[in-house]
Design a protein that fits this description.
95 residues, mainly alpha
Length: 95
């Protein structure tokens, strides 16, 4: 396998992993929203008092934001790096 073929494989692999990372970011958002719905349901039924619900909502929102943003951001960073490598490959093939 030539170095160019290896680099093209790396670019293709990085883009597929980046898509997966972005999907995981959206999935973490969906899990967080589902958890919030569950907390509201428990509050409505009376299994949680107001203070417990507030703590649960705050923790869920913060955990969802951090994990979702980190995963989504990692996917975007991987996409940008793959694009840069793709540009470098194209540039090196021209010269």
């Amino acid at each position: 396998m030539s170095p160019d073929e290896r680099d093209r494989y790396r670019v293709a692999r990085a883009r597929s992993v980046a898509r997966l990372m972005r999907r995981l970011g959206w999935i973490s958002l969906a899990v967080g929203v589902t958890a919030l719905v569950g907390i509201v349901a428990l509050l409505a039924v009376g299994d949680l008092d107001g203070e417990e619900a507030l703590l649960a909502v705050t923790g869920t929102v913060l955990a969802t934001m951090v994990s979702g943003a980190a995963t989504y951001g990692s996917g975007m960073n991987l996409t940008l790096s793959a694009s840069r490598l793709d540009r470098d490959i194209a540039w090196s093939n021209r010269t």
